[in-house]
Amino acid sequence: MSTVRIEFPGTRFAAQELPARACLPLHLTVQNSPLLFGCRSGLCGTCLIEVEGEGDVAEPPSAEEIEALDIYAPGNAKARLACQLVPLGAMRLRKIDSA
């Protein structure tokens, strides 16, 4: 099984090695990452992040995620909802606070 490295720059959290295509809310907790997950369906904005560099994800944002991002991070092209990401390769994720 292939793994992907998820880094959290600027935090005290160590990088995590997760299975490729992992569901992030199932693997990332308050003990091993700075990310929090609320609804886990892309509606609440709790897991709002920026993907630094060229993070490799399986799919572009869905129409629903784009709508949520327009509310929680208008104009931020790097913003994503971590609960909606499907990692295929190494990623650097930075938590951002929703308004």
From TrEMBL:
InterPro entries with a match to the protein in the record: 2Fe-2S_ferredoxin-like_sf, 2Fe-2S_ferredoxin-type, 2Fe2S_fd_BS, Beta-grasp_dom_sf
Domain of life of the native organism: Bacteria
SUPFAM superfamilies: 2Fe-2S ferredoxin-like
Molecular function via GO: 2 iron, 2 sulfur cluster binding
Limits of the 2Fe-2S ferredoxin-type domain: 32-87
Protein name stated in the entry: Ferredoxin
Organism, as annotated: Tahibacter aquaticus
